[in-house]
């Protein structure tokens, strides 16, 4: 069974960490994020991968190579001149996927969801597609997926945070919505729904029309751990949660003064942190120098020249400012 990893997105909410790389290529505790996805798939014997590219494609190729480092084989598809959306990405890789059941995984997640169990659900259901879902216990901002008797019935609005009234009412059982994990299993017949050669997303192109036509869309609900690294605060929080035995991760070739104080932080490669610097809950990107005595808290920091030289700052990006040779993005 082939698996497609979606790795073409711009990563606008992770800017400026994604100035010189796409979101799945950012480092996460010593490996590129998409490398974790590849290793995760390999554990289930899913080692025949297709990876789509668009934004900063060389950054993904550099991160993954031919896949052998992660125990997989990789074929790349390039979307140009424009990005194609999830369904458009499938159309662009149709020649690699249309002969057998295949899997899609988002390239920006860290998870231990049992894919073998999800595949078993798919095979037993006879469905054209199976969506792997999780309970959204924190009611984070993910689309609500409606299900009934083991099948998907529709898609709602974004989940809303618990109200104070819901939290106070201890006798009322709180409604926990289901959310999509970015993992789904599809039969080649989905290509009957997907338009050729245009931008298209998977829900309006396939899932909604499929449901309207009475197609069986199976729901596999998992209780595995799952994290999506789609924003800078989430990237930092999840990095800290997954560190083992420390609260700071250092990349390669860093020079750290013994007089610096660094807590709850992620430090990328070739970073210099000078004497009496004070860092708390920070992300320090490649080749940044923190000058003597500088203090930062709840911030992501990249070299200012990278921002000066980029074409534009994405609208969804957190706002930052230039200080000396660095560009500082407050995370509050």
How would you describe the overall organization of this protein?
It is a single chain. With 332 residues, this protein is of the alpha/beta class. It folds into two domains: 2-228, Spore Coat Polysaccharide Biosynthesis Protein SpsA, Chain A (Alpha-Beta Complex); 242-330, no CATH class. Helices cover 22% and strands 32% of the residues. It has nine helices and 23 strands. It has helices at residues 33-43, 57-64, 85-92, 94-97, 115-125, 164-168, 202-212, 232-242, 304-308, and strands at residues 2-6, 27-28, 31-32, 48-53, 73-78, 102-106, 109-111, 129-135, 143-148, 151-158, 178-186, 217-221, 226-228, 248-250, 255-256, 261-263, 265-267, 272-273, 278-284, 289-290, 295-303, 321-323, 326-330. The strands form six sheets. The protein has a seven-stranded mixed sheet, with helices on both faces.
């Amino acid at each position: 069974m082939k698996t497609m990893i979606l790795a073409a997105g711009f990563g606008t909410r992770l800017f400026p960490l994604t100035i010189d790389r796409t979101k799945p290529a950012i480092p996460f505790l010593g490996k590129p994020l998409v490398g974790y996805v590849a290793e995760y798939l390999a554990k289930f014997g899913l080692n025949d991968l297709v990876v789509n590219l668009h934004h900063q494609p060389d950054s993904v190729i550099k991160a993954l190579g031919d896949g052998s480092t992660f125990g997989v084989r990789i074929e790349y598809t390039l979307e140009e001149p424009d990005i194609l959306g999830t369904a458009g990405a499938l159309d662009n890789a149709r020649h690699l996927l249309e002969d057998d059941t295949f899997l899609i995984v988002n390239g920006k997640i860290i998870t231990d969801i049992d894919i073998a169990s999800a595949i078993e659900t798919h095979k037993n259901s006879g469905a054209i597609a199976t969506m792997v879902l999780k309970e959204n216990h924190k009611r984070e901002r993910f689309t609500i997926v409606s299900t009934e008797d083991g099948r998907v019935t529709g898609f709602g609005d974004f989940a809303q945070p618990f109200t104070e009234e819901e939290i106070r009412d201890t006798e009322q059982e709180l409604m926990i919505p289901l959310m999509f994990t970015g993992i789904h299993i599809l039969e080649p017949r989905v290509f009957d729904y997907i338009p050729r050669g245009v931008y298209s997303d998977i829900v309006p192109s396939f899932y909604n029309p499929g449901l309207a036509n009475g197609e069986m869309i199976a729901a596999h609900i998992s209780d595995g751990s799952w994290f999506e690294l789609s924003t800078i605060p989430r990237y930092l929080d999840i990095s800290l949660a997954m560190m083992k035995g420390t609260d700071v991760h250092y990349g390669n070739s860093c020079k750290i003064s013994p007089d610096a104080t660094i807590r709850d932080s992620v430090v990328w490669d070739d970073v210099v942190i000078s004497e009496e610097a004070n860092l708390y809950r920070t992300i320090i990107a490649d080749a940044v120098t923190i000058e003597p005595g500088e203090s930062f808290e709840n911030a992501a920091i990249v070299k200012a020249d990278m921002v000066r030289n980029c074409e534009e700052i994405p609208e969804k990006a957190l706002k930052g400012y230039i200080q000396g040779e660095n560009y500082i993005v407050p995370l509050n």
